[in-house]
Amino acid sequence: MRILVLGGTAWLGRTVVQHALDTGHDVTCVARGSDVPTGARLVRADRDRDDALTGVASERWDAVVDVSRTPEHVRRAARDLEPVADRYVLVSTVSVYASQAERGADEHAAVLEPSDDPADYGAAKVACERAVLDAFGPERASIARAGLVGGPGDHTGRSGYWPWRFARAAVTGRPVVVPARTDRPTSVIDVRDLAGWLVGAAEGGRAGVHDVPGEVVTLGQHLEAARAAAGGDVPVVALSDEVLLARGVAPWAGERSLPLWIPDDDHQGMNDRPADRARAAGLARRPLVETLADTLAWEQLQPVHPHGAGLSDDDEAAVRAAG
Ligand SMILES: NC(=O)c1ccc[n+]([C@@H]2O[C@H](COP(=O)([O-])OP(=O)(O)OC[C@H]3O[C@@H](n4cnc5c(N)ncnc54)[C@H](OP(=O)(O)O)[C@@H]3O)[C@@H](O)[C@H]2O)c1
To answer: How many domains does one find in the chain?
Structure first.
């Protein structure tokens, strides 16, 4: 098949291109940069320009895969490529949902009002989805609402921190600071499994809207998988939500955080989506411990730790000692 990837120079896009090449497809990428996997053809273009896709719109495509979060880019692409492409696969997000409080919700849940501002992430993705559905219709459009993406190459550090922290503790002997409350839901979709889903959607048979998150587990199960991936039985210091917040630890992501820890009840639905529809349509997800082991191997090659998210050794010592 001839697949046009709008993107292909960043993490997920590159993984999609590689997977498509590995499964025998002919892949062309459109991006401003040049770092696409070997074997893919690159058409350099800036989608801020109205005529960016004129060149590729003169060719026939079996499918388009788009990672954009910019409604204007997606509207132009849908306009220019609808006459020449059989299917349009859009990478969307579970951030499109109006409520992140409801647990176990599916694709029928209400979404945010659309916005044209890419900085308004979830609302902008709603606008992107509508542009694709309006142009291609639900039979030729495939909308993949991804959950938190993790795996090798995760520069946000959200999937790498815990296996790295447990592996480090096995060396230093210092106990790992973890949240005491571990019964809340979390999920991580491996970037390679998401790429597999998207290439499958490009091949056909996955039309319409699908949530595509990782398997839902508790934070405690995630931490156990991270500990198993790190291969060490290390001591932990479990601190309550109140204590962690009082000691300046950030939830979820970013600097001085405990990644994936979400104390806010209004966000417990974000990582608790069963994905029945995608599973019925063939979503294949590898075991979490495999994702975390591979992420640890990648993480250990990085020059700085932790990067993107988590507590540094000094931060962690300060959090343990405070109070
Ligand atoms: N990380 C998560 O947990 C998570 C969760 C849910 C969904 N998602 C979705 O997953 C996707 C991630 O995609 P990604 O890893 O490939 O990274 P990305 O940073 O979202 O990719 C942006 C891609 O679009 C291209 N691009 C941006 N502006 C452009 C322009 N003006 N003209 C032409 N090309 C342009 C970039 O290439 P150049 O810069 O080379 O032009 C790059 O290849 C996104 O759709 C995101 O919303 C992520």
So the answer is: 2
For residue 11, the ligand 1 atom closest to its alpha carbon is 15
In a domain, 202, yes or no: no
Q: Distance between CA atoms of 117 and 69, rounded to whole angstroms?
A: 9
Per-residue pLDDT of the chain (323 residues; tens, 9 = 90+): 999 999 999 999 999 999 999 999 999 999 999 999 999 999 999 999 999 999 999 999 999 999 999 999 999 999 999 999 999 999 999 999 999 999 999 999 999 999 999 999 999 999 999 999 999 999 999 999 999 999 999 999 999 999 999 999 999 999 999 999 999 999 999 999 999 999 999 999 999 999 999 999 999 999 999 999 998 789 999 999 999 999 999 999 999 999 999 999 999 999 999 999 999 999 999 999 999 999 999 999 999 988 899 999 999 999 998 76
Comparing CA positions, the residue from 197, 201, 230, 192 lying closest to residue 212 is 197
Residue 272 and residue 187 in contact, taking contact as beta carbons nearer than 8 Å:
yes
106 and 141 share one domain: yes
Provide residues with CB under 6 Å of ligand 1: 7-13, 31-33, 45-48, 67-69, 91, 93, 146, 148-149
Distance 11 CA to ligand 1 centre (A): 8
| The ligand 1 atom nearest the CA atom of 148 | 3
Which residue, judged by its Cα, is nearest atom 14 of ligand 1? 12
Instruction: Give whole-number Cα distances, 200 to 17, 50, 207, 270, in Å.
Output: 12, 30, 11, 25
160 and 11 within one domain = no
Is-contact 84 121, C-beta < 8 A? no
Residue range(s) defining the domain that contains residue 236: 153-186+217-267+287-321
Domain boundary among 84, 117, 146: 146
Of the candidates 178, 277, 264, 194, the one whose C-alpha atom is nearest the C-alpha of residue 226 is 178
- For ligand 1, atom 18, the nearest C-alpha belongs to 10
**Of 93, 115, 146, which closes a domain?**
146
Nearest CA to ligand 1 atom 34: 31
